[in-house]
């Protein structure tokens, strides 16, 4: 009887050890899951009214960009935290700046969106 108990305990120990080793290998071989940081809540409702805004990049890399209105620029800035723009001129498309047909334009001070 003692021999049977010793054999059963030995078999159970071997099974547990083997299972633990398999689990360790599985954990080591499982690729890490990268979790993206949560996107900001950009529930901003804009009208479809076209009132162009010329924006310049905050990081000063790249060219100007025309947005349909200031609200659409705010949505862009919210959804793209690394690609922010500020209002350079209201009521004018960027490619029209400097053309006499669009003058006068309203040049605004630099306003950077809050991060």
Give an account of the 3D structure.
The chain has a four-stranded antiparallel β-sheet with strand order 2-1-3-4, covered by helices on one side. The longest helix has 28 residues, at 2-29. It is built from two helices and four strands. It has helices at 2-29, 70-79, and strands at 53-57, 65-67, 85-90, 106-107. The chain is rod-shaped. The chain is of the alpha+beta class and 115 residues long.
Give a count of the beta strands, DSSP E runs of length 2 or more: 4
User: How large a portion of the residues is in β-strands, by DSSP E?
Assistant: 5-15%
Radius of gyration: 31 Å
Number of contiguous helices:
2
What is the SS-derived class? alpha+beta
Organism: Pseudolycoriella hygida
Domain Kazal-like: 36-96
Signal peptide: 1-18
InterPro entries: Kazal_dom, Kazal_dom_sf
How would you concisely characterize the structure shown here?
This protein has 2 helices and 4 strands, in the order H-E-E-H-E-E. With 115 residues, it is α+β, with helices and mostly antiparallel strands. A hairpin with a 7-residue loop joins strand 1 (53-57) and strand 2 (65-67).
